[in-house]
Amino acid sequence: MKTSLGPIQYCWPKEKVVEFYEAVAQSNVPLVYLGETVCSRRRELKFSDYLALARMLKAAGKEVVLSTLALIEAQSEFLELKKQVENGEFTIEANDVGAIYLAKEQGIPFVCGPSINSYNAATLKKFASWGMQRFVMPLELSKTWLTQVLEDLTPRQVEVEVFGHGYMPLAHSARCFTARHKGLTKDKCQTICIENPEGLLVQTQEDQPLLRLNGIQTQSANYMDLCDQQTQMQALGVDYFRISPSSLASIALADELPAKSASHDRQCNGYWHQLPGLTLS
Amino acid sequence: MELLCPAGNLASLKVALNAGADAVYLGLKNDTNARSFAGLNFTPEKLAQAAKLTQQAGKKIFLTINTFPKPGEEQRWYQAIDLAADTGVDALIMADLSLLDYAHSRYPHLPLHLSVQASATNLGALSLYKQEFNIDRVVLPRVLSMKQVRDLSKVTPVDLEVFAFGSLCIMAEGRCHLSSYVTGQSPNTGGSCSPAKHVRWQDVGDNQQTRLNDVLIDQSGKDEQMGYPVVCKGRYTTSDSQEASHLLESPTSLNTLSLLPELAKARVVSLKIEGRQRSPAYVEQVTRVWRQAIDTYLNDPAAYTTQAQWDQALAKVSEGQVTTLGAYERTWQ
C-alpha cells in the first residue's frame, strides 16, 4: 500500500500553497491530488497556477491528479470544470457526477473522489466501464463494507484508495457558513474563509467538539487517524492510504508512513469500524 | 405544472388525492427509501391498493427507491423494482446508479425520475443519467438559486422537478454524512436522517435539551421553538463565539409560493411537497393550499400574487412556523 496526499480543502494564501507543494516535491509521496474542491469563489490560485504546480510535481517524479469541485451549481462552474477535464496532461479526480460525464465523453481516465456515491460493486463496475481507474471509498462506509465490495469486484480492475487521515468532509451546501457566521453574504464574502486555515471549530453547548466550518463545506471537528489500520488495509488490497492535508505536518506524516502508528490522542475513526463517524478510538 | 404530494400511508394518499394532488409519491416499508420510519410506508399489498386508488382517480403514483444498496443485500432493492413494475406504478424515483441500470435494462418502458439523493445539479450530471439510463426527470437538490434553476432549464435534457414546500434540507442531498457522523445511520445507508431511536428530548432545570445519540445538538428555554432533531438545525458555539447560535440553519421550512410564476416560466414540470413522515392533516392542508395557488396562477398568470391566507395556512404546519425561500434566494446562501 502506498501513500497519497489529497487536495487541500481549505483556502490558503497562494504563497502557502506553493510552499506546501514545493515541500511535497521533496517528499517520498508517490501520488498527489491538487485543485480547488470546495468553492469556486476561492481565487488565490487560478487553474493555470494549479497546472504549473502539477507540472512541477510531475517533474519531481510524482503521479499527479487534478481534483475538481464537489458541488457544481452555476454554468460558469460547469464550463470551468470542462476546461479542467480537458487539460490534456493530467487525469482528474471527479467529485461530482458532472465531471464523470465530461471525462467519459472525452475518453479521459478518471478517479472517483470521496464525494461520489460509490456504494456497491455494480456501481463501481459501471464507473470502471466509463474509464474510472481508482476510487476513494465514501467517508461514511466501513472496513466491513469495503471487504464485501472488494470480493464482489474480483477480479479487480480498479485501484482502491481509503481516506485514512485528516478532517473528514461531511457535507456541502449552497450556503457559505463561514461568511454567514462572520456577518457577510456569499456574494461579498471577501473569501473570509482564508482566516481559518483548518476551518472554524464548532462545539456543542457542552463543549464537545463537533464540526468544522470550511466555507460551504462542513467537516468533522476531530481528524480521522487510521494509521494503525494499515496492515488490515494492506491485507484487504487497498492501494493507497490518503492523507488529507491540514498543514505542512501532513507531508512529514506522509513521509513517515507506513512506520507511523496512530497518535496517542483518540481520534474520530468510527466509520471504519462501522460506528457513528464521530466515535473516538 | 404537476402538484406532487407525499403519502406516508393510505390515509395521506387519499386526502392528497381529494385535496387536489396530480400525483403522489411513496415508499415501501423497508430501507429501500430514505423515509424508512416505523409505522410509515407501504407493504406490497398496500402499494397495490394505493396504485388502484390513484389510477381510479386519474392521477399518477411514483415509487421512491432512493437509498443505496448494501453489498450482498442488493436483492431487496431489485425486488422493490420488480414489484413496482408488476404493480404498474407510473415512475420510479431512484438515486443509485446500479439500480437505474437494473430498472432501465429490465423495464425500459418504466419511466425513471432521478431522486434528489443523486445530487445532480448540473448539465453534465443530467446528461450522463439521460444518456445511460434514459431518465425522464430530475428532482433538483435544494442548493440551486432561482437563476441557476432558470439557466439549467434552458439546457437540460430532462424535465425538472423542484421542492416547493416542506422541511428544508440545506446540504447537497444524497451526499450529506451529518446524520451517520452522529448516529451511524444516514439516509443513504439506513433510510433516514436522524433516526428516531437516537433522538432524546429532556427537560433539565429551566431548559429543554435535544440529544442525538447523546450529543447535545440544541438547548433552550422551555418556551422556545425547537427545531427538528437534525445536526444542521442545532445550536452551537465556535472558537470565536461562546454564544450558542444556529450556525448552519435555524428551524424553518421551505415555502416557494411567491416563486410560482418564476418556476412556471422556467418550465419546471413538477412541484414537490416534502413530508412523507408528516400526518394526513399536514398533507391535506398543504395540498389544498398549493392546488389553489397553482390553479390561480394557471387561470391568469399575469395577475398571480401570493394570498396572505395561503402563507398563514402553510406557516401553521411549518417547522418553527417560519418559512424561507432557501437557496432559491441568493441572499439566503
From TrEMBL, chain A:
Named cofactor requirement(s): [4Fe-4S] cluster
One Gene Ontology MF term: metal ion binding
Keywords: 4Fe-4S, Iron, Iron-sulfur, Metal-binding, Ubiquinone biosynthesis
GO biological process: ubiquinone biosynthetic process
Pathway assignment: Cofactor biosynthesis; ubiquinone biosynthesis
Residues reported to bind [4Fe-4S] cluster: 39, 176, 189, 193
InterPro entries: Peptidase_U32, RNA/ubiquinone_mod_enzymes, UbiV
Pfam families assigned: Peptidase_U32
UniProt xrefs under PANTHER family: PEPTIDASE U32 FAMILY, UBIQUINONE BIOSYNTHESIS PROTEIN UBIV
Family membership: Belongs to the peptidase U32 family. UbiV subfamily.
Function: Required for O(2)-independent ubiquinone (coenzyme Q) biosynthesis. Together with UbiU, is essential for the C6-hydroxylation reaction in the oxygen-independent ubiquinone biosynthesis pathway.
Subunit record text: Forms a heterodimer with UbiU.
Protein name from the UniProt record: Ubiquinone biosynthesis protein UbiV
Taxonomy of the source species: Bacteria, Pseudomonadati, Pseudomonadota, Gammaproteobacteria, Alteromonadales
Gene: ubiV
From TrEMBL, chain B:
One biological process term in Gene Ontology: ubiquinone biosynthetic process
Pfam family, one: Peptidase_U32
Keywords: 4Fe-4S, Iron, Iron-sulfur, Metal-binding, Ubiquinone biosynthesis
Region forming the signal peptide: none
Domain of life: Bacteria
Cofactor(s) listed in the protein's UniProt record: [4Fe-4S] cluster
Binding, [4Fe-4S] cluster: 169, 176, 193, 232
InterPro entries: Peptidase_U32 (IPR001539), RNA/ubiquinone_mod_enzymes (IPR051454), UbiU (IPR043692)
GO function terms (MF aspect): 4 iron, 4 sulfur cluster binding; metal ion binding
Record has Iron as a keyword: yes
Iron is among the record's keywords: yes
Pathway noted in the entry: Cofactor biosynthesis; ubiquinone biosynthesis
Quaternary assembly: Forms a heterodimer with UbiV.
Family matches, as HAMAP family: UbiU
Primary role: Required for O(2)-independent ubiquinone (coenzyme Q) biosynthesis. Together with UbiV, is essential for the C6-hydroxylation reaction in the oxygen-independent ubiquinone biosynthesis pathway.
Assigned protein family: Belongs to the peptidase U32 family. UbiU subfamily.
Protein name: Ubiquinone biosynthesis protein UbiU
